[in-house]
């Protein structure tokens, strides 16, 4: 019944009233003051960043041990970092992980900054060859624990082995022309339009090196760069064939045309077969587009000739790497026969 103060719970027990107690104002103000700004990661002694900072300082002062020695987990610097680099360099530092991948990369002489080996690694023929190559070339070798290696490889299957690849140094368009002039042969440049798979870029580099191209030109945006995957697929050709980056591919093609080059686009609807190309003996730029979209409209309009590769009717198209390899072979053949 309303107003019945005899029912259980109707009255409040003394001291049960919620709210601030007497003298609590000072306590609340102290709570709001906090403990100050959070220290940087490298200033917190328990953080891995602090351990890397200490190791870097020791190396800088010459107290970090021999260059080809080993270090324990937590003292190795670097990893799969992603940050901006100086002009002309790539923007990504990658880590190649896995015994087969690392061994293939080392055999291909991919530039290496650091080689990581897991502690208590179960050795086999691949790891023994990796260690022999590392010792012979003087690469930095760091021994790390599995948790640290998992972090460095971003959780990839590393099998206890990984290498850190430095950013690639890109050339300028003029550098490709200079390389042609030094060779004493008419310029032969490959340009890629919208090719985003670094493995395709690596295969193009391999074909470019095999058939005498003086360099490869790629756009700066929405295109594959020279990453660890491209290095590996190129089978070492990335160390011999320069790659230039252009802010605007159409503008770069225009500069090459002003320098005396003819631009030949590769497309299924070309007006001539690549094997019958009359311009093959002239200074040449061969442009390949992506498998899905082909050449963009502006790039196609910048071409002097659009050539095609005769293929069976059952096959819709060839990817950029295959089309470029066939085209470079035909150009090299026509130049030999001229």
UniProtKB/TrEMBL annotation:
Keywords: Methyltransferase, Transferase. It comes from the Bacteria. GO terms for biological process: methylation; RNA processing. Residues 95-171 form the RNA 2-O ribose methyltransferase substrate binding domain. Residues 76-88 have a biased composition (Gly residues). Residues 1-92 are annotated as: Disordered. The keyword Transferase applies. It holds the Pfam family SpoU_methylase. The keyword Transferase applies. One of its GO terms (molecular function) is RNA methyltransferase activity. InterPro entries: Alpha/beta_knot_MTases, Ribosomal_eL30-like_sf, rRNA_MeTrfase_TrmH, SpoU_MeTrfase, SpoU_subst-bd, tRNA_m1G_MTases_N. GO terms for cellular component: cytosol. Belongs to the class IV-like SAM-binding methyltransferase superfamily. RNA methyltransferase TrmH family. NCBIfam families: rRNA_methyl_3. This is 23S rRNA (Guanosine(2251)-2'-O)-methyltransferase RlmB. It comes from Cellulosimicrobium funkei. The gene is rlmB.
